[in-house]
Amino acid sequence: MLLSGEAEGQQAWARIYGGSGLDRANSIQQTTDGGYIVAGNSYSFGAGQSDVWVIKMNSSGDIDASCSFINTASVVTASANVSVLTPAIVTSNSTATVIDTAVVAIDANLTSSTLCANGPLLISHKPSVDDSSSPTPNGIIETDETTDLAGTIDNEGINTAASVSGLLTTADPININIAFSTYPDIAPGTSGSSLVNYKITAPSANRPSTHWDFTVTETTDCSACYPAWYDFTYHVGNSFSDVVPSYLFYSYIETLLHSGVTAGCTTSNYCPDLYVSRDQMAKFVCAAMQKKAGGSCTTSGCTGIFTDVSGSNIFCPYIEALYNAGIVSGCSASPLMYCPDGIMERQAMAKFICLAMEAVEPGSCSTAACAEIFADVPSGNIFCSFIEGVYNASVVSGCQASPLMYCPSVNVTRAQMSKFIINAFSFSL
Fold it and tell me: Where does the record place the SLH domain (predicted)?
């Protein structure tokens, strides 16, 4: 068992490896990425005769990689040691007639995901959501809906992985209807998709909050492997009572909630059809910037930069943060005013979004002279370069395809705001 504790002495996590009283860890080395390399011997896996076992774990105790060197005689007493030299070497004791010396080189930072290649090395990817049998397939796990999780495993070792399997477990309040999955034999350097998918259900009665995420652990194994554990987190939909799965902007709104940009207009509603005011826009955009790049839109106490935005306005910190970041300049220069109650139009939204994208990632929303891409946005429109910037960045596609139009003066709803934000900052579930 490996235990990790907080500075106060509280247990942070615990992991148990092995299945026999004779399994033992001989050495442990913390790595520069906050993880650990543990080397020892096992009587539970492989040939079961004091096989040398080396695992690389991340800071949460999950296995990044594992490998073994097989002992062929039960009389051998093998040991393993991890060196902090560059490169690090792991060896097992041996006699010439029983076992060859097992040696593996680890990169200088002790962070290699391929510690050794003496056999199969399984790396699991997050199982994809397959809700194709749902009345509204959208790639989101809805409450009370049985959903498939389709796994994919890479083999980064040098030998074929045979009899590959996966086991799904969780401590969260969901139902795992099919917990055991099988995979095909996976050749070195290739991937295998699950032959039997996991099946899960998230009961609506178990929803702990508006924003519900749950974590599952996939344990992978094969005939010549040591088990490896991978944690994956999923978002549960049906978050807002006024946004049903069939709604056009449903996936954008769920992703916006999951990303922490919004919590809705009430604890149970999103109010998708309400228009977005300029002060509300400030919170949407500033919060998205901070989530994407910490420090890009830092808020603090309201200082009264704008004469019409007092400290009693709950959006003041976001408005002033956007001003300090160069995203907004106000609606009047003298006196400096913001017009917080003004409703956002699509053309002004394009400017705010494009500038925010550039602040977070320069080059992500390049602007140029107006090319009149849209039939209703001529070169005389002061927002044209920003509108075409977000169009070229695939944030928007327009309001009409033929002829291509943008509808620049149309007001932006909260539902449409979600699409602007998700496409601009590439948030995902």
Answer: 236-299
